Amino acid sequence: MPVTTDNSTTAMVGYSIYEKNKLPISVNCLDDKLIIEWDDGAQSEYHYLWLRDNCHCEQCITSLTREQIFEICDVPFTIKPSNANISPEHELQITWDFENHHSRYLAGWLEQHCYTKASREARQLKPTLWDRQQISQYLPTHQYQDIMSDSQALLNWLYEVRDYGISIVKNVDTSENTVKKVAERISFIRETNFGTIFDVVAKNNANSAAYTTLRLPLHTDLPTRELQPGLQFLHCLVNDAQGGESILVDGFKIAQYIRENYPDDFIALTTLSMSFYNKDKASDYRFDSPAISVNNQGEVVEVRLANFLRGPIAIAADKMQAIYAGYRRFMLLARQERFQFFHRLNAGDLLVFDNRRVLHSRNAFSLEQGHRHLQGCYVDRDELLSRIRVLERELA
Amino acid sequence: MPVTTDNSTTAMVGYSIYEKNKLPISVNCLDDKLIIEWDDGAQSEYHYLWLRDNCHCEQCITSLTREQIFEICDVPFTIKPSNANISPEHELQITWDFENHHSRYLAGWLEQHCYTKASREARQLKPTLWDRQQISQYLPTHQYQDIMSDSQALLNWLYEVRDYGISIVKNVDTSENTVKKVAERISFIRETNFGTIFDVVAKNNANSAAYTTLRLPLHTDLPTRELQPGLQFLHCLVNDAQGGESILVDGFKIAQYIRENYPDDFIALTTLSMSFYNKDKASDYRFDSPAISVNNQGEVVEVRLANFLRGPIAIAADKMQAIYAGYRRFMLLARQERFQFFHRLNAGDLLVFDNRRVLHSRNAFSLEQGHRHLQGCYVDRDELLSRIRVLERELA
């Protein structure tokens, strides 16, 4: 991988640019790691195995695909520097005691990948949680023409989609399949058994409550799938029906509220598996999962709930009352108006939300006054985050 | 939902058929649950909330979509039967103390959904683990004509794909895109940034080591994606190259071996996050996850490893030596021949394996003797399991 370095404040490794905000001034070698002291007084530690693993040289990274060919299990677990120093170009330079291999690390790259607790936390995404009042004060709203034609406007929109988990795009072309064009500003569409683009219209022989005029309770889509679809797009082409308002609730806000106020329910919701079933003629999906998922830092990363797609819970009998208590707590809170955002989609509106965070529902509607036609599709979180990184690179 | 019942041994609820293997003979109501005694002497307990939640009546389940409209948070947490008895048709019949609602439960349905520990364990899928010797003694092998034309042959193949995580289909038509036809015997294809069907040929400007003639180390595909693709299909159209043998390792077998012999490494591998990066010109995927995932019953459900797609690990400094020890342990074991299955794909062979379980690699190859062309695609585990359930229903 070509490493370019100069006296400017930035440098490139592979496709990424690393700003040099501070400079390393000394390196101190210990048993299994070294400590770098920076010119702002901070210290960072880097383990030898980690450093050797992350060597950027052309022997370790193939220039053909920029993928790592060196394998860390091919050196001793006890590998150490025979020499380590800070170069005049502010690089950490190491010669290893195994095969005399030589490695160089840019200051900006080291800073960016420092793994002290503070550095890791600073890099973590922080969702902006909302309730009825908060989302009414600021609803992320973007213009179709802008996001379709301008990379910076696109990036601004995607940041808000990522952080708020909700946004409205206005003045969207109301011709069919426009939702696909908007979604493809991010990436390819996540296909499901409902196809790639789905039409939300009331129809006979509905295989989902979505395709009726019925009220839908608050839910996430496709909880029966191991990976629930990430972003959901709902584009309104026509809406002359009475009723049918969308109701959205930030599931992460509810989860936080339960965590703070009802810790037993939070434990039940994050550790005991609900069952989700969706049996149709040609498919039979089932998945068991807690209603709230936390990552291994304990942060809430997903909610999964749809009353009409639940199956019989199959957990230890002595936990059955606890899971029902937790589930009821969640649903009863989500039904409270203080958490609910009401929105009527009109022709030309496109609602985008994180289906793994924001519960959605709609009121029943009547078609006596006119027609109602939405088109929807899904794009996964991976694609959103990848697109944001590529745009950041392009616009840097 | 129509419930049909008669004196035969089976009965239907929705799309499913429930066999009546034993009969309930008495019901004993306690505080928050009831106990059924069966004619074989066994007992099952069912909580009142669970029973009320699973009422099959047409008020609770809309006949239109067979989805549940009743919501358990609309009844008191302390709901109880005012009456419960076993009917002459061997149904559990309950009248509830709230709204006088009446519910009926078929014996076969109750038996099938019993949640004692023994019943839950009996319903759990058990993968058949393998090493070199075991897979050499029995390699699941199926015929293209059979799986394409016969539902029972298809189901038999899918059972083996599910349980062994590997299978070979022989005598596959070698025309292009046949892999898609085979995959679609299960369901739709999982699209990725490599498209739906990918051609594995050596090419210039490769954006993945897969598209070179290089040796590939053992790996799972797309560990940079939150949900790694489930099944991987590799169809060999032509193989006149020298070398390029496939090497496959059952990652669940390695995980089990580590769990039994190196418990500290197992803890590191299941709790500490590796980082997976794949930076290309138009995409930039990253995902952090432990290399081994266990579900909330402690069973290994996934491995995620690809040396060439790793990024700098970002975990607490005091865990850094432990994660490297665990990762090296896994890779060094996977490199041992006793765990490796070698297979040369010839024209007309189609290899299918669970990409979230089986690590794959290939030797370097030379094109001096001839051409090599594979076509591949992915289908997710959800689709496999759904297809199995639908086939079971159709063939019952």
Structure description:
The structure is a homodimer of 396-residue chains. Helix content of chain A is 26%, strand content 29%. A six-stranded mixed beta sheet of chain A has the order 10-11-22-14-25-12. A four-stranded antiparallel beta sheet of chain A has the order 13-23-16-21. In chain A, a hairpin with a 5-residue loop joins strand 1 and strand 2. The model of chain A is unreliable at 1-10 (pLDDT under 50). The first copy, chain A, is α+β, with helices and mostly antiparallel strands and 396 residues long. At the A-B interface, helix 1, helix 3, strand 18, helix 10 and helix 11 of A face helix 1, helix 3, strand 18, helix 10 and helix 11 of B.
Name the descriptors:
396 residues, elongated, 4-stranded antiparallel β-sheet, 29% strand, 6-stranded mixed β-sheet, 25 strands, homodimer
Structural class of chain A: alpha+beta
Q: Oligomer, anyone?
A: homodimer
Note poorly predicted spans of chain A: 1-10
**Which percent range describes the beta-strand content of chain A?**
25-35%
Gyration radius from CA atoms of chain A, angstroms: 26 Å
Terminal CA distance of chain A: 20 Å
In spatial order, strands of the major sheet of chain A run 10-11-22-14-25-12
| Total helical elements of chain A | 11
Outline type of chain A: elongated
Query: What kind of sheet is the major sheet of chain A?
Result: 6 strands, mixed
Task: Give a short synopsis of this structure.
The structure is a homodimer of 396-residue chains. Chain A is of the alpha+beta class and 396 residues long. The first copy, chain A, has helices at 48-53, 107-112, 117-123, 132-137, 144-149, 151-164, 178-183, 251-261, 263-271, 320-334, 381-395; strands at residues 3-4, 10-13, 16-19, 24-29, 33-38, 43-47, 81-86, 92-96, 102-105, 141-143, 166-170, 198-200, 216-219, 231-239, 242-243, 246-250, 274-279, 284-289, 292-294, 300-303, 340-343, 350-354, 358-362, 365-366, 372-379.
